[in-house]
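Batch manifest line 391
LIGAND: pyridoxal-5'-phosphate
JOB: complex structure
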Amino acid sequence: MYQQLYQHFLTGHQGKQHFACHSHHFWPDVTRQAMLEYWDLSAAESDEKWQQVFGVKLPATQKLLAEVLGSHHPEQVVFAPNTHELVMRLLSCFDWGQPIRILTTDSEFYSFQRQASRLQESGQVELTVIPTAPFTDFEARFIAAAAAGDFDLVFCSQVFFNSGVALTDLSAFVQQLDKVTDAMIAIDGYHGFMALPVDLSAIEHRIFYLAGSYKYAQAGEGCCFMLTPAGNSYRPFYTGWFAEFGALQQERSEQVPYSDDGFRFAGATMDFSALYRLHAVLQLFKQQQITVGQIHQYVQQLQQAFLQQLTTLDQQVLTENQLLKRDLTQHGHFLTFALENAALAESLADFLKQHHILTDFRGNRLRFGFAMYQRAEQFDLSCLSSFSHRK
Ligand SMILES: Cc1ncc(COP(=O)(O)O)c(C=O)c1O
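JOB STATUS: finished
ARTIFACT:
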């Protein structure tokens, strides 16, 4: 029923089964008009366009994002081209004269994990890493670790990129963390945002919530964002001139001034065409009354149909035992199979690609993503019966 929104991308991928939506999601057709709108505005207004960008489109996008997140503070949303930039900005809130003590998991995406590991190499960061597996008691183990240590930053995903497993209750998780630590709490919500219904209203004063447009927000690369706590007084030293917006009229004091809202975490000039796309998608869903809850329900049905089909096939390569999960009703929008080794995952992904089935893998983990533009009756995984892996 949703396919009509994606005619351009579906036409471009005719004959393919696209199970890589958790990585690069198809863009709805409205994003094309949004690109043209940005181009036309630039042509017509040149650098006068910023009034429209900053005065109209950006606040409208903040508002739409806040609605999806259950936030009462749209002005606390800041944008950046990628989450790595936002991660660095958070890290730069601390005193680099001593090591930054960070509690995190072994399943954070590379934008955080690689950067934190590199800083650990140079002694700038001390990492305490909690494995996400076994998933059953992950939250309890993580909160116990937060209580046992003295941390500057707690960094954890809402949905883990290497399994699809989601925190059972994000608000309860943060509230329990809050009881045991004063550390800054950052949640990487990239695999949760626009996939799982989220209501941050009870915790938005306590967390930094990072996500972006590339995945389930369906608007492509270039527009990540962070919801920041209202009234915080952090002064990130990795700071760009946008971070002074709203503070521009202040008398210059001895100290570098910062904006009072989310912009205090801003960088500098960026290409806002991605924000135009994101606005167009959020606006489309609002107009069509398509909620994240409905999307989630639809995707869950797709996942069930997919798993059901696997059981009916004569194949042993993707089995229930290999599926990483805790509770499939509270799971990200991709299914992850932990295969025997990375070579097998790569060879199976190649084989599937030859059969026009697009997936992706991370190490030995093969991931199948699901999206609104798929139809369960079009799933055809029968080629798996003829897969054989030559070691
Ligand atoms: C959990 C998570 N966070 C962040 C990102 C993207 O990071 P960046 O915007 O820095 O490229 C991804 C991309 O796959 C991800 O899976």
